[in-house]
Write a structure and sequence with these properties.
α5 packs across α7 and α6 crosses α7. By secondary structure, the chain is an alpha/beta fold. It has seven helices and five strands. About 30% of the residues are buried. The chain is globular and about 50 Å long. α2 links the parallel β1 and β2. It has a five-stranded parallel β-sheet.
């Protein structure tokens, strides 16, 4: 649970670690929605630091694997995530790529290959999302199925890489099966209270990465 994870950090006197997926939508560049979300995460860190001196840490996991599945060109993925990483590090956050997390976990045999049955309602919701964002090979329905299977591997890689962290998501609990099983999940808004739309899916005029 989150309480147990925080208690362990307090006993050890270390920062409370949070990790979260950061995805890729149609935009190639950083915009105000992205930086607003990063600032919202920063506010969480500041609130924790105000009551617990070791504070908290944030690590973004860039979902390059999902972006590739959705048909985004490699150079656009690199450009967007590169801009977000600059803005994230300016705020004291860390970042890594999901593809590397999976590669490292597979290299040490840390991912068990247990087939999980895809809940029908989850596949239906993923299929609806795919009709909006999927531009890869095949049908949106097939893309949603591949996305689910990828997540079953990736969630195991993430919990191997960050066993003591709390997993942040902007999704609702109906997607719990996509998240690491052995990590506590913190469901939070994305840009402000009452808003859970992922910032990378929101269009806005381009701004500079450094502010």
């Amino acid at each position: 649970s989150i309480l147990e994870a925080v208690t362990d950090c307090v006993h050890a006197g270390r920062p409370v670690p949070f990790v979260l997926y950061w995805g890729k939508g149609p935009r190639v560049w950083l915009d105000a929605h992205d930086t607003t979300c990063l600032d919202y995460l920063g506010a969480l860190v500041r609130r924790i630091g105000a009551v617990y001196s070791p504070g908290a840490s944030i690590k973004l996991i860039f979902t390059d694997t999902h972006a590739t599945l959705n048909g985004h060109p490699a150079h656009e993925i690199e450009e967007y995530f590169g801009d977000v990483e600059v803005a994230a590090r300016q705020r004291g956050f860390d970042a890594c790529w999901l593809g590397e997390v999976v590669f490292n976990a597979e290299a040490v045999g840390a991912i068990d290959r247990i087939d999980e049955e895809a809940p029908g309602e989850t596949i239906r919701k993923l299929g609806l999302a795919a009709t909006k964002w999927f531009r890869g090979e095949g049908t949106p329905e097939a893309g949603a199925e591949r996305y689910f299977r990828m997540n079953m591997i990736e969630k195991r890689a993430v919990q191997h890489a960050f066993p003591n962290a709390i997993f942040i998501t902007f999704n609702g609990s109906e997607y719990r099966c996509l998240f690491p099983e052995r990590m506590p999940i913190f469901y939070m808004y994305s840009l402000r209270r009452g808003m859970s739309v992922k910032p990378w899916f929101l269009p806005a005029p381009r701004i500079a990465a450094a502010q």
